[in-house]
Amino acid sequence: MSGMEPEAQEFLKRIVQTVSVGILFMLLHMTFGLYLNWGFFQGTPRLGNIIYYIVFLASLSGLIYFYYRLWKGKL
Questions:
Q1: What gap in Å lies between CA 5 and CA 33, rounded to an integer?
Q2: Per-residue pLDDT tens for 3-17?
């Protein structure tokens, strides 16, 4: 058993989950958007660009929903 209070332990757990999921979200979209050039238009939008932005918006809304569900409860 750790010597931490349960409220402090739960708060730190929420912080770690928030940071971890946020970094994972940013790394995935940085990889696909910047490194694979799916986030940039080259003249006209291609199918890969459209799919990337649809997935980006869907995952962003999922991330916001996850954060809402994580932080809505009482500490």
A1: 42
A2: 889 899 999 999 999
Q: Are 75 and 7 in contact (CB under 8 A)?
A: yes
41: alpha, beta or left? (left if phi > 0; alpha if psi -120 to 50): beta
Instruction: Name the pTM for this structure.
Output: 0.86
Q: How far is CA 1 from CA 4, 5, 6, 16, 75, in A?
A: 9, 11, 11, 19, 20
The two structure tokens encoding residue 25: 């979200």
- Written as six digits, the tokens of 57 are 């918006």
Residue that is written with structure tokens 């009482």 in the block: 74
Separation of CA 16 from chain center: 13
Structure tokens at 37: 């050039």
